[in-house]
């Protein structure tokens, strides 16, 4: 770390893919005086409490960690004020920042958002970009106001979406780019030499919150749509169907080059000419690469068929 510090920064974030942002702040000329993240959550069958990835990293770095369930009460707000932050950096924190906190740092509260705002405001911008078949997306650094991703845009960077890229992979890449973009613009922002630009409300779109039900596959859809669904929902909620009375998760799949197969309709599992396993859709064929049957571990599709001889020729859904 540098011995000279430009100002006092508070970081707010939770999942592992935002750690590059915090790491970049630690390597910068800003003194990270506190890290805010979500409370520990129960995970797994045993419901064991687990710390968020950002908390684990922050503790390793010797940083002060705060885990309030809300930022709306006065005690939490006074605690933040006592840190005397000059700037607050937010990346996938998942808590609303009330107006009092927005007014606390002299340089404001900045957010890294994984889309080119005003397109895809809200909680699932990467998912919707993939679902919609977008060829490109980007990352935005914006000043937070009291709306949902409605604040002035400070900087943006475009990137292409690979046609096999999952939402998990793209999210990681976007926040790495966001960390670099933030470090590039921060000196000019804190010096007052750049200003945010108001978003064009006529171009705004809002994403929807995902539920488990979003992940169920409708095999009457076309193969391209289903393949995008599998890529988009890889982290949450996952994509799944039903087979032999159990839930079957489709972990990885792609559009097959085989345009038609001898089958009785959408959802029918069939052998492919290349030796793989496919599923007939409303238009085209999905090639299955890895699966996970309810209560079992993930396996390659060919290994799955060796243990379940009735799979080929059955109908999913």
Order of helices and strands: EHEEEHEHEHEHEEHHEEEEEEH
* Arithmetic mean of pLDDT: 94
- Order of strands in the sheet with the most strands? 5-2-1-6-7-8-9
Percent of sequence in beta strands: 25-35%
The CA-CA distance between the termini, in Å, is: 55 Å
Category by helix and strand content: alpha/beta
Q: How is the main sheet built?
A: 7 strands, mixed
Helix fraction, binned, reads 10-25%
Shape estimate: elongated
How is this structure best described in words?
This protein is α/β, with parallel strands linked by helices. 25% of the residues lie in helices and 25% in strands. The chain is built from 8 helices and 15 strands. It has helices at 19-26, 53-60, 74-82, 99-102, 125-131, 167-191, 223-232, 301-307, and strands spanning 7-13, 30-36, 41-43, 48-50, 65-66, 87-91, 109-113, 136-143, 153-160, 240-243, 246-255, 269-271, 277-280, 285-293, 299-300. Helix 1 (19-26) runs parallel beside helix 6 (167-191) and helix 5 (125-131) packs antiparallel against helix 7. The longest helix is centred in the middle third of the chain and has 25 residues, at 167-191. It is elongated. The relative contact order is 0.10.
List keywords for this structure.
single chain; 317 residues; alpha/beta; seven-stranded mixed β-sheet; six-stranded antiparallel β-sheet; 8 helices; elongated
